[in-house]
Write a structure and sequence with these properties.
Protein name: Glycosyltransferase family 4 protein
CATH superfamily of the largest domain: Glycogen Phosphorylase B
Strand order of the largest sheet: 3-2-1-4-5-6-7
Structural class: alpha/beta
Number of strands: 13
Domain Glycosyl transferase family: 192-362
CATH class of the largest domain: Alpha Beta
Strand content: 15-25%
Largest sheet: 7 strands, parallel
CATH architecture of the largest domain: 3-Layer(aba) Sandwich
Pfam family, one: Glycos_transf_1
Radius of gyration: 21 Å
Domain Glycosyltransferase subfamily 4-like N-terminal: 17-180
Organism: Flavobacterium celericrescens
Number of domains: 2
C-alpha cells in the first residue's frame, strides 16, 4: 500500500474541493492510503472525515501578490515553519511515497517533496493568463524534474500550460468526474426547494451556481435577464453561491444592480447549499457564462446529471463538456445578446429543454463518471 500526502488549498466544497473529495472517497483503499492537509476547518474536512480519511490543518502556502510585502514575507516564513513542522511529523509516521498537490495554489507540497526527495504529482485545476509573471513562475515550477507528473483537468488547461514547454511527456489530461445520482430525489422535495427556497410556483427558473466573483459571469447574466424579464413575466433568476470575505463589495454591487433594474422579486441570491443535486433538479435552465476560461467547469456536468440544458461560454474546459445544439448552447463570452438569445430559445421551447437535458445526462454519465476519473488517476499513482 502506498501512503500518499494530499495537500489542498481550501476546506470548502466548490469545484476543486469537490473533485478531491470524490477522488478520495472512491480511491482503492487497499492500494492507497490518503492523508490530507488543509489550511483550515470547513465542510470539506467534515466530509473527508465521514469517509474515515485523516485530515490535518497546516499552512499550505498560497501564492498571491500581497505576500511580497515585508510584513507578509515574515508571515510567510512563519507559515513555512509551521507547515514544514506538520509535514515532517506526518512523514515520520507515514513515510509518504507521493506528495499530491491538488491545485497550483498550494506550494508547500512541491517544496516539501523536493527537499525530501519524494515523488510529487501536481493536479492542475487552473488557467492563469495574468499576471504573466505568475503564469511564468508556475510554468517554471511545473517543469522541474522534482515534479514527477502533472495531471490537467481538461485539454484547455493542458494546452495553456504545455504551450510554455516543448515535447514534455510526464503529464496527462484527466477530466473531472462526478457520482451518478440515484433517482431518490422526490418531486415533493424539488417542489419544496422551488417554493420555500426559490420562492416560485410555475415560473421558469434560470440558475447560475458558483462562487460570486468577477469572472463567473453573474453580472453578464444579470444584464441578459434584465432584458428577458421585460418580455417574459414567468421567469426567476437564481444565483447560488457565496463570495469570499475580502470580496463582499462584489455581492453588494450585484444587489445594487438588481435594485437599479427593479427586479428584486425576480432575482434571488442564495448562499452556498450542500444539497446541490436537489438544487439543480429545481432549476430549469443552467447558465455558466464565465467571462474568463473555465479550466474545467464542473457545474456544467452537475447540471447535465440533473438533465438540465446548459448555456455556457465558448472557451476553456466548457467546450469539452457542452455539445453545441445537442446538450445546450455555447455562446461567445461576454456577449449579452448571444446569451439572451440562447436563454430565450429555451424559455420558449419546453420540448427543447427536455431533449437537451436528456442528451446532457447521457453524455455526463458516459464521459464524466467518477469511476473513469479515479481509474485514470490510480494508474498515475501506481507508477
Amino acid at each position: 500500500m502506498k501512503n500518499i500526502l494530499f495537500v489542498h488549498q481550501s476546506a470548502e466544497l466548490y469545484g476543486s474541493d469537490k473533485t478531491l473529495l470524490l477522488l478520495l472517497k472512491h480511491i482503492n483503499k487497499q492500494k492507497f492510503y490518503p492523508v490530507v492537509v488543509l489550511p483550515n476547518d470547513g465542510p470539506l474536512k467534515i466530509e473527508l472525515e465521514k469517509e474515515n480519511i485523516e485530515v490535518f490543518i497546516a499552512p499550505v502556502i498560497k501564492l498571491h501578490r500581497k505576500m511580497f510585502t515585508p510584513t507578509n514575507l515574515l508571515l510567510l516564513l512563519n507559515h513555512l515553519r509551521q507547515g514544514f513542522s506538520t509535514l515532517n511529523r506526518l512523514h515520520k509516521k507515514y513515510r509518504f511515497e507521493i506528495v499530491y498537490s491538488n491545485t497550483l495554489a498550494v506550494l508547500i507540497g512541491f517544496i516539501f517533496a523536493r527537499i525530501k526527495g519524494i515523488k510529487h504529482v501536481w493536479h492542475v485545476h487552473e488557467i492563469i493568463e495574468s499576471p504573466k509573471v505568475v503564469s511564468k513562475l508556475f510554468s517554471f515550477l511545473i517543469n522541474r524534474k522534482s515534479n514527477f507528473f502533472t495531471i490537467y483537468n481538461s485539454k484547455a488547461t493542458a494546452t495553456f500550460w504545455e504551450s510554455f514547454f516543448t515535447e514534455r511527456k510526464n503529464y496527462s489530461v484527466i477530466s473531472n468526474g462526478l457520482e451518478i445520482q440515484s433517482n431518490d430525489i422526490t418531486t415533493d422535495e424539488i417542489e419544496l426547494v422551488r417554493k420555500n427556497l426559490f420562492e416560485v410556483e410555475e415560473e421558469i427558473v434560470v440558475g447560475l451556481v458558483g462562487r460570486i466573483n468577477r469572472w463567473k459571469g453573474q453580472f453578464v447574466l444579470l444584464e441578459a435577464f434584465h432584458y428577458l424579464a421585460q418580455k417574459h413575466s414567468n421567469l426567476k433568476l437564481i444565483f447560488v453561491g457565496s463570495t469570499t470575505d475580502n470580496q463582499q463589495n462584489i455581492l453588494k454591487e450585484l444587489n445594487t444592480k438588481i435594485q437599479k433594474y427593479q427586479i428584486e422579486k425576480k432575482v434571488k441570491i442564495i448562499p452556498f447549499q450542500s444539497n446541490i443535486n436537489t438544487i439543480w433538479k429545481a432549476i430549469d435552465i443552467a447558465i455558466v457564462p464565465s467571462t474568463e476560461p473555465e479550466p474545467f467547469g464542473l457545474v456544467a456536468v452537475e447540471a447535465m446529471l440533473a438533465s438540465k440544458p446548459v448555456v455556457a461560454s465558448n472557451h476553456g474546459g466548457l467546450t469539452e463538456i457542452v455539445e453545441q445544439l445537442q446538450t445546450g448552447f455555447l455562446i461567445e463570452p461576454n456577449n449579452i445578446q448571444e446569451l439572451t438569445n440562447a436563454i430565450e430559445k429555451l424559455i420558449n421551447d419546453e420540448k427543447l429543454r427536455l431533449e437537451m437535458g436528456q442528451k446532457g445526462y447521457t453524455r455526463a454519465v458516459e464521459e464524466f463518471s467518477i469511476q473513469k476519473h479515479v481509474s485514470k488517476i490510480e494508474k498515475v499513482l501506481a507508477d
